[in-house]
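_Full entry_
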Amino acid sequence: MRLNALMDNKGARAAAKRVGRGMASGTGKTAGRGHKGQKARAGSRKQATFQGGQMPILRRFPKFGFNNIFAKKYSAINLGDIEKFIKAGKIDAKKEITIDTLMAAKILNRKFDGLKVLAKGEIKTAVNIKAAKWSKASEAAIVKAGGTIKDK
């Protein structure tokens, strides 16, 4: 086989339909666009959401919900992750764990409005955590492991 002998399979490529090239072509006169009307004109098409001039359904429906600009956002960490990072040596369990120590260890990358401790995973090491918020289950797990949790 030679590169100059390569060619497409028969019927793989169809020639472009040349519209408006005389009546004998089958697509002469109106070029397959029918007679008059918006769709026959060049550069003009109805939008997919056009509903015959009536008020579109998206504009008839009421808008709902709002964005609370005063809502606080917290950097969350799970107990299982704290245990994992203590075992990896990124966090010192003897020192107090704060959002600043977690950022210094590159575990968190943003402070937001404080640290929130969640109860996903297990903690076996006694740790002292200073956080803005925590779940009841996480508090119970920390106390059970022999640690403490307090407000920042």
Q: What stands out?
A: Residues 51 and 57 are 9 Å apart (CA to CA). The mean pLDDT is 92. The radius of gyration is 34 Å. The beta strands are 75-78, 96-97, 115-118, 128-131, 133-134, 148-151.
